[in-house]
Design brief:
Strand order of the largest sheet: 2-1-5-4-3-7-6
Order of helices and strands: HEEEEEHEEEEEH
Number of domains: 1
Strand content: 25-35%
CATH superfamily: LytTr DNA-binding domain
CATH class: Mainly Beta
Distance between the termini: 46 Å
Mean pLDDT: 86
Radius of gyration: 18 Å
CATH topology: OB fold (Dihydrolipoamide Acetyltransferase, E2P)
Low-confidence stretches: none
Number of helices: 3
Helix content: 10-25%
Structural class: alpha+beta
CATH architecture: Beta Barrel
Length: 152
């Protein structure tokens, strides 16, 4: 797919036109993105910015003051602090689970109890993340709110 962007300061409002031969899933996602109000995250790869869809992000992690989005097979560095991303993504299925992690609850396969009042989440890609005691209650409340499921 070829994408061209033009800045025109004389426009009264922004507009987008899409030309296609056949409606595909990729075109539908682009249309949904343009019509919706979901935040957009861009990952850095080889100096280029890659648009990431929220659905494909398993979790977000901070290491050495850098923020990364973990997808099924790729890890991208992204802009923004964890606090900012937590606020921006909380209405889109993302929940803070520790000082360094935000998880996409749609990517959670199961939740297990751990010693010391902690929880462990197993993601669809079999990775495991620990929910700290500090974030346990807010995570359970978030799950109840979003999924209607309460885990012990």
């Amino acid at each position: 797919m070829q994408i061209k962007l033009f800045q025109e300061e004389t426009l009264d409002e922004d507009r987008a036109e899409i030309y296609y031969r056949e409606m595909t899933e990729q075109i539908e996602k682009v249309c949904q993105l343009l019509e919706g109000s979901k935040p957009q995250l861009y990952g850095l790869e080889d100096g280029e910015q890659i648009l990431l869809t929220l659905d494909e992000i398993y979790y977000i992690d901070t290491v050495d003051k850098k923020t990364f989005a973990y997808l099924k097979e790729h890890v991208y560095q992204i802009q923004g602090s964890l606090s900012f991303l937590e606020s921006a993504l909380s209405n889109h299925g993302f929940c803070r689970i520790s000082k360094a992690n935000i998880v996409n609850i749609q990517s959670i396969k199961r939740v297990k109890s751990e010693p010391n009042m902690r929880l462990k989440v197993v993601l669809n890609n079999q990775e495991e993340l620990v929910i700290s005691r500090y974030y346990r209650k807010s995570f359970q409340n978030y799950l109840t709110k979003v999924r209607g499921i309460l885990h012990d």
